[in-house]
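User: Teach me something about this protein's shape.
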Amino acid sequence: MRFKEDYDGTTVNEIEFDGHGTKILNVAKGHQKLSSFLKEVFLPEGYPNSVSKDYLTYQFWDTLQELCSTLNGTLASHAIFQGMGVGNSKASALGATYTWLMKDGSGMISNILFAWSKGTLLDIDAKRWRLFADVLNDIAMFLDLLSPLAPPYLFTFAMCCTSVFRSLVGVAGGCTRATIKQHQAQCNNMADVSAKDGSQEKLSGLLGLVLSMTLINIISVSPLITWATFSLLTVLHLYFNYRACSCLVMKSLNPTRYKVILDHWFKEGNVWNPEQVNCVEPFILGHRGIGKHIVVGASLGDLNPSRSDLTDTLDTNDSRYIIYRFNDEVRICLKSGSNHTDQIEAYYFAYMAAQESSDSTIIISNTDQISAHQKFLSEMSREGWDLSFSPLGASQLRYSLV
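Assistant: First, the predicted structure itself:
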């Protein structure tokens, strides 16, 4: 009697029971063993079934951008050490320490302020904030290269500016990376996906260190070579980042993707699938680049109808939201107890209201519109959209009758 054992789709052993004992025949070839080993080290267990379809493409472009960033980091570090007086007998260790402390303090303060002001937005537009982080990182490195040219009294200020930029990069990049890993993990394996992403990043970093040793000798010849190398690496870095963000096919709804879907729905009467929406999603501009702005979780305080109009609306409307137009926005007030399903429905009708021009008008959906919305949700589910999680940017403000 003979059995075979497969590991992640590849046959590795054949086991034979012949009545005299057990005989194990290893059938995996050398190259298969090496391939399986590398797969175990750098890819999540169960790949490709345990991750999203865009995983490998995204990781490819992400690894390339990480390599460019490592090399540019070498150029920036070289410039910082020059500016701090490494190799200069007149430089003061105390002055360098003071500069370093000021730099770190500026970064810590800006980290706290940025996380407070923008933290809730990073889930909504992960692609856009991911690209923002990398652009800001390149700007910080550009300032690093300029810092040795600055007079001593400006050098500390330049270092503080780059530290502020890098702290924003750390918050935006780290949070959006977590969102992307959550999207890639298809089998509740986010920890494994994150760990293997770290391994891939370290491999790219090691390659970058080896190349940096050669790069340092080259750039020491001429400042012109330094700036030419930095310019080339920056262009490649931004291009690789754009390609990485472009290949992500998110299945959750955010304002940008939802507006793209609704545009097509009301024009053509059918729903695009996530791959089709990804091809046209304007993630650089974000949802503000598409039509009238819709605010989810607005205050009733800006609503200015007569008291009787508002009372009649609340009496006749049993939905968990109120929609009204105000200036150049359509606002959605959410009732206490409303959930993300109510937000998806409210956004649908708010989009319809955005096509009209009158202000301070309360919108009440009728039975026909509710029926059309139910059909729309069925189409969304059929096309593969995840309606269980919809980061539409809703605030925590809720109204209730007292």
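Now, about its shape. The chain has a mean pLDDT of 82. The two ends are 76 Å apart (CA to CA). If you'd like, I can walk through any region in more detail.
User: That's plenty for now, thanks!
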